[in-house]
Amino acid sequence: MAQAFDAAAQQVLLTQRAEEALALAKKLGADAAEVGASVDQGLGVSVRLGEVETVELSRDQGIAITLYVGQRKGSASSTDASSASIKATVEKALAIARYTGEDPAAGLADAALMATDLPDLKVHYPWALTTDEAIDLALACEKAGRDVAGIHQSEGASLSSGEGVRVYANSHGFLGTQKGSSHSLSCMLIAQDEKGMQRDYDYTSARNPAMLREPEEVGREAASRTLRRLGAQRPPTGTFPVLFDPSLSSGLIGHLMGALAGGALYRESSFLCDRLGSSLFPNWFGLEERPMEVGASASSPFDAEGVQTRNNRFIEQGTVASYMLSAYSARRLGMQSTGNAGGARNLRLLAPLTSRDDLLKQMGRGIWVTELMGQGVNGVTGDYSRGAAGFWIENGEVQHPVEEFTIASNLNSMFAGLVAVGDDTDTRGSIHTGSWLIDAMTIAGS
After folding, report:
1. d(CA 376, CA 258)
2. What is d(CA 21, CA 278) in angstroms, rounded to the nearest whole number?
3. How do residues 69-82 score in pLDDT, each as one tens digit?
4. 388/374 Cα distance (integer angstroms)
5. Do 198 and 233 meet the contact criterion of CB atoms below 8 Å apart?
6. Mean pLDDT score of the chain, rounded to an integer?
7. Is 113 exposed, middle or buried, given 0-12, 13-18 or 19+ CB atoms closer than 10 A?
8. CATH classification code of 7-227
């Protein structure tokens, strides 16, 4: 990078800025206040066909201030953390608060819930990577993929490396800081046959650069995924079992968590309203978050409101065991925060795992979906309809690639009809899961 990032110094500076903002808010008449401040620096490069396309050095910072006058709330933010900017931002938030309506649920999270256990979760791994080294890694990744026989063209390879610091403080006296890093490498390739062109990709991502897969492995896997899509046909129309690839089954968990989120629940815009304690999945299935997991991609000892994070069991033995609540949504629902302001952190399955081959055998005849398109998911009703591509399965074996079809069902039915989970766990994101085999979905194909 062009300029070294001193995370420790940034921590000190952001802490001073947050404390300055809180003191000023109090002086100007706010009854309560909270401040979030962050600074991030990163390097990104992209290459295509052996040539450098882009090199980007980024540095972003911001400070957001929320004030309460009684139960009136005002928020303002700035990308400038100077004293003059902080003063202007606090004054703006205060002016907004004085004109907003009273909200009985507004206010800081309860002081008793503030985090006191603040361990180092080992989520900060700086990468002393020069621009030339980053370019070389991206070029090696793309070359390995392009060298595979049958690859016709390339959409390029990209490397991203960044680190940052965030600080959250409020007028309860809580102040929490965390340093973090994120690094990734990806490659997208194109293959062609008499039926046309196909593209696919692969990537690797980790907080610790030492945990990234080798560039050549990513390139070759991108090539393999691309070539296997050649010769795609449209599948028959009907009702068949569907196997979701791990990268897609994590999306199903995302839809679940969206429906469990307090904001959707108090607005009555979730298909899981009033479902606490009711059956949703088979009784062998569970789901929990582990926000204090050392080194994981979403680990944090406190949430976006300073509340102590904890392991939360959202699904236990197939039933809805907990909602995902911030302080505000909890008050709206007459409940208590689950430490999930800002979302869930490090979701992990509690379920027996099955090999991919055994999942295909259980399926017998159906579709293994490896790509989804469109946004056809209704969070209010649970209705699910997406464009898809993947592979046709017959007698438990892959027959040929398929494309240009849709899959449809309802999330209630899909979750209840979960047959098994694969042991091919994708650990690249905050949701760790393997493939999901759903007993039946409507396929609209040829």
Report:
1. 14
2. 45
3. 999 999 999 999 89
4. 9
5. no
6. 96
7. buried
8. 3.30.2290.10
pLDDT digits (tens, 9 = 90+) for 367-389: 999 999 988 899 999 999 999 99
pLDDT higher than 90, residue 195: no
- Cα(114)–Cα(116) distance, integer angstroms: 6
Sign of the CA dihedral with 296 first, then 298, 304, and 310 last: negative
Please state the length of the chain.
446
Asked whether the predicted pLDDT for residue 3 surpasses 70, the reply is no
Closest CA to 286 of 332, 360, 348, 230: 348
341 CB burial (10 A radius; 0-12, 13-18, 19+) = buried
State the Cα–Cα distance between residues 104 and 302, nearest whole angstrom.
24
**Consecutive H or E run containing 110:** none
Q: Where are the domains of the chain?
A: 7-227, 238-251+351-444, 272-350
Q: How does 4-37 read in b/e, with b if 16+ C-beta sit within 10 Å?
A: ebebeebbebbbebbebbbebbeeeebbbbbbbb
Question: 80: which 2 tokens?
Answer: 């400038």
The DSSP code for 360 is H
Give per-residue pLDDT as tens, 223-243: 999 999 999 999 999 999 999
Kind of pairing, strands 383-394 and 436-444? unpaired
Nearest 5°: phi and psi at 252? -65, -40
User: How sure is the predictor about 313, in pLDDT bands with cuts at 50, 70 and 90?
Assistant: very high
Model-level pTM? Answer: 0.94
Q: Span 43-60, mean pLDDT?
A: 97
